[in-house]
Design goal:
27% strand; alpha/beta; eight-stranded mixed sheet; Rossmann fold
Length: 163
Amino acid sequence: MELKSNSPEQTQLLGSYLGQLAQENDILLLTGDLGSGKTCLVQGIAHGLGITEYAFSPSFVLVREYHGRLPLCHVDLYRLDHMAEIADLGLEECLYNNRVCAIEWAEKALEVWPQDNLLIRLDYVSDSQTQRIIRLKPEGERHSELIKELKLILSREKTWNWL
């Protein structure tokens, strides 16, 4: 599934829908260049989960947990360069303990994530400061169902540009 977001607010709205649809143990793998909107999307996910705290990028603490309808484990691997560092984080509690897990810079460790996940790629649109191409690729039955539900929500709105 590919969409064009026209603004940070629209990216957050997409995240909010994902948060509303999220279930325990959903794993959202976010990839994209620095500043492409990964944290913006997670802020929307947090909102959709009913989290009232502001979701900061956890770049310096690596993992933050927020509590709403479901707990959100927000992981940022930006500062890590080696698989051993990522393995040492002990992310099993985030991944397998009835939380929603959103992992920024997930491409640094694609081989360690569970097979059932939603890979979300955010890319800049050339000649635009605010537009992003967002590609959502589900793996597994649960995340394929999530995309079907998301498509139903987005099809009711006329503001989304499908690619």
